[in-house]
Amino acid sequence: MKRYLSIIIPFVAAAVMSSCAANEEDIGTRLSRDTFDAWVKKNAPNAVAVGNVYVEYIEHGPAAGKMPVLGHSWVMLNYNARTFKDEVFFTRTDSISKRVGRFAYTTHYSDELIVFTSDNARLCKGLIEGLKSLHVGDSVRIYIPSDQGYASAMSMNEAYTGESATYANLPVIFDVRLKDVISDAYIWERDSVRNYAKINWGLSPDEEIKNTTGNNPERYYGAFLHKLFENPAGDTITSDSSVFVNYAQYYMDGFLLTTNLDTIAAKFNVYNSDVNDYFPLYLICGTPRGDNDIVRHAAMQMKKGEKAQIVSMSQWTYGNEGKPSNTPEIGIYQPTLIFLHVLTDEEKKAIDDAAAGE
Questions:
Q1: Environment class of residue 84 by beta-carbon count within 10 Å: exposed (0-12), middle (13-18) or buried (19+)?
Q2: Distance of CA 211 to the CA centre of its chain
Q3: N or C: which end of the chain has fewer CB within 10 A?
Q4: CB atoms near residue 192 (< 10 Å)
Q5: Is 10 helix (H, G, I), strand (E, B) or coil?
Q6: What pLDDT score was predicted for residue 356?
Q7: Burial, 48: exposed, middle or buried (Cβ in 10 Å; 0-12, 13-18, 19+)?
Q8: Cα–Cα distance between 326 and 274 in angstroms, integer?
Q9: Can you tell me the mean pLDDT for 98-121?
Q10: Residues 111 and 201: beta-carbon distance below 8 Å
């Protein structure tokens, strides 16, 4: 009998110790939650409990507006986040970034398209819970307790400079405006490009840029060319041509992503004298490669000396998954506007001569 007792007793002791540890954890969580509830009730008396978070309405959108569905929606948000000590750790607003001393010209302060899933590092449990209760057009302040916040950072990259302060395992506050709920990001992006081309250039979908390198030309869905300056006497560009171009690529709101023109870089306060990229880009037309896909096909529909604008879906430029490690950061499903100047031989020579100091 003693033999069996010696076996049973350690398990009982372990169970008691485990129960005590669990009770201590529960007490700690409960005290933290009690403190959180008291703080919200004192400082945000109009906030209402929504599950594990509190939501305070700043402005109501239409009651019949779309609502996000976890796992089935994309959300377009403008949001700013801070700790309860008012330390901003994320912002989509340039004025707030300037106030906290984190502003950078290489950061795109704008609405953000986010896939609404539970494994998105941008979205903590509390933010998801608050967003699920919103309609498009709602502006709210969401108060999130520490156990529903971030266990680690939001996975921002070096190109984004708005993130600061320590916020992991702390209660946090989000100021959020739900701008849109999107069921299919690809269709949303395509329609955004087509609407831009129609409104600004009077172009219809059947005037999208064509792939002319094969035997069966196909349309590049969601990409349009609009000539700013025509040069009828210029050399024709064919699939076996090699050309030099100057370019500048922007988000649709005018934010500069990249350029090989030092004057444009200086205008947008991103000129870097240590970067040796301010010279004409050499393009080998024909089979497109990488990020210059749509630029090559656009060039083949121009003559040397001509200038044009291209509006394009991301799949023909950076890719619809974006480039989160790029500077500036390239968002997912973000259409862009490209300025393109195909140089004549004389224009290229003049640039070379100027660089050589002649």
A1: middle
A2: 28
A3: N
A4: 17
A5: helix
A6: 81
A7: exposed
A8: 17
A9: 91
A10: no
Q: How many residues does the chain have?
A: 358
Rounded CA-CA distance 181/193 in Å is 18
Using the Cα atoms of residue 235, residue 236, residue 240 and residue 244 in order, give the sign of their dihedral: positive
Question: What is the amino acid identity at position 65?
Answer: G
Q: Residue 21: its pLDDT value, please?
A: 46
- Name the pLDDT band for 29 (thresholds 50, 70, 90): low
**In this structure, what token pair is assigned to residue 82?**
């801070």
- What ranges in the chain are assigned the alpha helix state H? 2-43, 94-99, 125-131, 185-201, 262-267, 293-299, 345-355
Distance CA 24, CA 54 (A): 26
Record the tokens describing residue 295, joined without a space. Answer: 């630029």
For the stretch 50-98, pLDDT in tens is 999 999 999 999 999 999 999 999 999 999 999 999 989 888 899 998 9
With a CB cutoff of 8 Å and minimum separation 6, the contacts of 320 are 185, 186, 189, 313, 314, 332, 333
